[in-house]
Amino acid sequence: MMEGISDIKIVSLDELRPPRIRKEPYINLYFKLSHSAPKRWCADFTQLTSKSEFSVKIDSKKGEFIETWVRKPEQIEKLFQYLKENIKICNENYIARIHSEAQAEQSKNSVVDDEGEQGQLNKIIANLNFDD
After folding, report:
1. Beta strand 65-70 with 27-33: parallel, antiparallel or unpaired?
2. How far apart are CA 132 and CA 120, in angstroms?
3. Which in 68, 73, 110, 122 has the greatest CB count within 10 A?
């Protein structure tokens, strides 16, 4: 489930929807992700970027493109750096939550008998830290 989450990054702009100068006072940008992001990741990313100076959207059904816009071409680099930083944060948060949920599930499913030698052994095993 965690496979590839840390690999999510922007790899290009959408070739089918390149940025264009038009009559409207904005430039649409469609950043393509390295692979389709899970729905939950998309929701996290949307929440993380919700208070941004930039309007940022991602279709959670597909999770393939970050849709946004700028008013001037000079804003694109700042926006791009902002998106990259937030993708990294979102990846880290998503992986941490998966680890946390897995540990909670593991401790919920572990049988700890507080009585006797087996209970003592179970406690010792449960306290081993394999993350070092």
Report:
1. antiparallel
2. 23
3. 68
Sign of CA dihedral 110, 114, 115, 116: positive
Amino acid at site 100: S
Looking up tokens 């939550």, which residue turns up?
Answer: 97
56-66 tens-digit pLDDT: 999 999 999 99
pLDDT in tens, 73-101: 999 999 999 999 999 999 999 999 988 88
Strand partners, 66: 31, 58
Q: List the beta strands (DSSP E) in 21-129.
A: 27-33, 56-58, 65-70
Q: Which helix (H) or strand (E) element contains residue 94?
A: helix 76-109
Is the entire prediction scored with pTM above 0.85? no
